[in-house]
Design brief:
This protein is mainly beta. 0% of the residues lie in helices and 51% in strands. The strands form five sheets. A four-stranded antiparallel beta sheet has the order 1-2-3-4, with no helix packed on it. A four-stranded antiparallel beta sheet has the order 5-6-7-8, with no helix packed on it.
């Protein structure tokens, strides 16, 4: 897992061996380890200004939670003081809101129902994204007009238009790690079910 700041000056990554989070300047200088065991980091996203990271982490035998981290000091602050799994945080373009996946209830089979929520960071107010039941891994477009997500079975790539409050399906196959291009015209994703590494991109405007 590798993430660059929007201005390209810094990079963060997770070590597969121990789930620790690191960051450095893009030229490799000023490298620093930001987390240590027993905390394990699964994914992270730089804030638009490059000063913070939204991270998904947990200690052993605990639920995944979302934290805001100071990129210089590594200081962590949990975003919610509630039960339930929180996952895959992503920033709004202005850095004021996080969009994230969350378990809403447990099914009779023991699995979790999922949905997508907004967190206003100033007010600590949580609201649900309409029509997002059964979706995970939200990603906000660079222009702030839409949000991509995938179904919990990782079979469908969906796109929510914030202005019209409607969903559309962009792709249907094995899908993981959706990521917008910097200009917002494309969504990249990994078809993890194919042999080797298979990366696709789909045009947001045409579904191609």
């Amino acid at each position: 897992s590798v993430q660059f700041t929007l201005d390209g000056t810094a990079v963060a990554w997770i070590r597969q061996e121990d789930g620790s989070l690191w960051r450095s300047r893009t030229d490799g200088s000023s490298s620093a380890q930001l987390t240590t065991a027993p905390l394990q980091i699964l994914n992270m996203e730089w804030s638009p200004d490059g000063r913070q990271l939204a991270v998904m982490g947990r200690e052993k035998n605990t639920q995944w939670k979302i934290f805001i981290m100071d990129a210089d000091t590594g200081r962590l602050q949990p975003v919610l003081a509630e039960d339930g799994i929180e996952a895959n945080p992503n920033w709004s373009p202005d850095g004021r809101v996080l969009v994230f996946g969350r378990s809403t209830a447990s099914t009779s089979e023991g699995s979790h129902r999922t949905a997508i929520f907004f967190l206003d960071l100033a007010r600590r107010q949580v609201t649900a994204l309409p029509g997002s039941d059964g979706l995970i891994s939200p990603r906000w477009s660079p222009d702030g007009t839409c949000i991509a997500a995938i179904s919990s079975d990782k079979k469908r790539l969906m796109l929510y238009d914030i202005a019209t409050k409607t969903w559309q399906k962009l792709a249907e196959q094995s899908i993981d790690s959706p990521t917008f291009s910097h200009d917002g015209r494309w969504l990249f994703f990994d078809d993890f079910a194919q042999d080797g590494t298979s990366i696709y991109k789909v045009a947001v405007a045409t579904d191609k």
